[in-house]
Amino acid sequence: MEAPRSTTNAEGRQPQITQKYGYSTEVHHVQTEDGYILELHRIRASPTFGPADPSNPPVLLMHGLMGSSADWILIGPEDSLPYLLSDRGHDVWLGNSRGNRYSRNHSRLSPESHEFWDFSFHELGLYDLPAMVDHVLEQSGSERLHYVGHSQGTTMFFVLNALRPEYAKKFRLMQALAPATFVTHLKHPFLRLLVQHQAVLVSIFQTLGIVEIKPFPDDWNRLVDSFCPDFFSRAFCQDTMHSLTGNKYPHLSALGFRMVTHHVPAGCAVKQWVHFGQLVQSGHFRAYDYGPERNRLEYAGQSAPPDYDLARVVVPVAIYYGLADELTQPADVRLLAEKLPNLVALNLLPNATFNHMDFMLASDAKVALYDSIIANVEQP
Predict the structure, then answer these.
(1) How far apart are CA 132 and CA 42, in angstroms?
(2) H helix count then E strand count, the chain
(3) Active-site residue numbers?
(4) How many Å apart are CA 58 and CA 377, to the nearest integer?
(5) What's the 3-state SS for 89-106?
(6) Cα torsion at 310, 315, 316, 321 (round to 10°)?
(7) Using an 8 Å Cβ cutoff, are 264 and 67 in contact?
(8) Alpha-carbon span 286 to 155, nearest angstrom
(9) What letter does residue 213 receive in the DSSP assignment?
(10) Residues of 294-311 as b/e, b for ≥16 C-beta within 10 angstroms?
(11) Cis preceding linkage at 265, omega within 30
């Protein structure tokens, strides 16, 4: 197993988005202990504040399932959390987990191989997040950082700190947006249907050799632009999206729909979806279930996978959740809150229609959420 390695360069698709608004951005690469090469995007200076204040601890933001670093900046420079943080002098880092469009490299494996895609969110927490945290701290010269995660970005954090509690000293505060640990009360109708038939779907995928969920090709983006070019046709396209997902997005920003179709999905492993499906079925926040026979080999003779011990997560945690979130339901979020030994805030967003994607895409996210996150980052 190779030691993590880090490199820096100044090119990449996502930083081009930030640079066009006048933000100075870098591309960094870090290799995990098991050989995956991850890409991070760093915003070092804003057009209003200038270079980040080196006395401020860095802020690392982590996307959710099928997402990427681009998710954080889709609603434009006036409202996106990374820009708002940079405008106040913070050193902002946007992570990318293995398998998405920016992190499809490995020291020896090809993304065309099945072995490359043999990971779930367990490996993201065990390998990806510590590699990124160590790189951010090394590059910034700080001893600790602020962490903001959305959905699976929170899952990774809780896995890491449950398995490697020595990392607690490297975090000042974790702010969890729509945390995905316990998901028993999943309400999303389409995803609930997939979970109910997960065994059949897994068998079909294995037969067909499907191991990854790929990003949409460029032809898809051109198709969306052709069919949804203006407000009225875009409204029709959004209604179509709502009917497929079983969800409404009343807070979606003007930029949101087009940017979402161009950047989501960013790619992931099928095994990540299966692992979350297992959490829905079991009611536990626990490691991947391989079945009793292999579980005994993987988990020291246990026929069932072990739970992640949340009592070991001693980092201060502030949670934000929404009433209309059909993926991370309030009952599940409150169960997580009860198990955390250092919960500093449990924030229910006041708008009853705020849902899972609104944490990233809502036109009113700044007032509803980001101002509070920034205030927490800036507490002495």
Answers:
(1) 12
(2) 16, 13
(3) 151, 356
(4) 10
(5) CCCEEECCCCCCCCCCEE
(6) -50
(7) yes
(8) 11
(9) E
(10) ebeeebeeeeebeebebe
(11) yes
Residue in the structure block whose two tokens are 């602020």: 146
Stated pTM of the model: 0.89
Question: What are the CA-CA distances from residue 17 to residues 20, 82, 177 (Å)?
Answer: 6, 12, 24
Whole-angstrom Cα distance, residue 30 to residue 129?
Answer: 11
Tell me the pLDDT band of 252, cut-offs 50, 70 and 90. Answer: low
Structure tokens given for 196: 């109910």
Asked whether the beta carbons of 65 and 153 are under 8 A apart, the reply is no
Residues 6+ apart with CB under 8 A from 217: none
CA atoms within 13 Å, Cβ hemisphere of 73: 27
Compute the distance between CA of residue 25 and CA of residue 35 in angstroms, rounded to an integer.
Answer: 25
The answer to whether residue 12 scores a pLDDT higher than 50 is no
pLDDT band at 2 (very low <50, low <70, confident <90, very high): very low
User: Please, is 219 exposed, middle or buried when counting C-beta atoms within 10 Å of its C-beta (0-12, 13-18, 19+)?
Assistant: exposed
Which tokens is 179 given? 């945390």
Largest Cα–Cα separation, the chain? 59
335's tokens = 């169960």
Within 8 A by CB and 6+ apart from 212, the residues are: 99, 111, 117, 267, 268, 269, 270
Please report the pLDDT score of residue 245 as a whole number: 44
Structure confidence by residue, pLDDT tens digits, 191-238: 899 999 999 999 999 999 999 998 865 544 554 555 555 544 445 455
Nearest to 98 by CA among 157, 37, 156, 42: 37
Q: Which residues of 103-117 are buried (b: 16+ CB within 10 A; e: fewer)?
A: bbbbeebebeeeebb
Spell out the alpha helix ranges (H) of the chain: 13-19, 81-86, 121-123, 129-140, 152-163, 189-196, 198-208, 218-227, 231-245, 256-263, 270-282, 292-298, 330-339, 358-361, 365, 371-377
Tens digits of residue pLDDT in 295-308? 999 999 999 999 99
Span of 2-6, 98-102, 293-297, 348-352 with lowest mean pLDDT: 2-6
Examine the pLDDT at 345 and tell me if it is beyond 90.
Answer: yes
Q: What angle do CA 76, 318, 169 make, to 5 degrees?
A: 105
Q: Looking up tokens 């209604």, which residue turns up?
A: 239
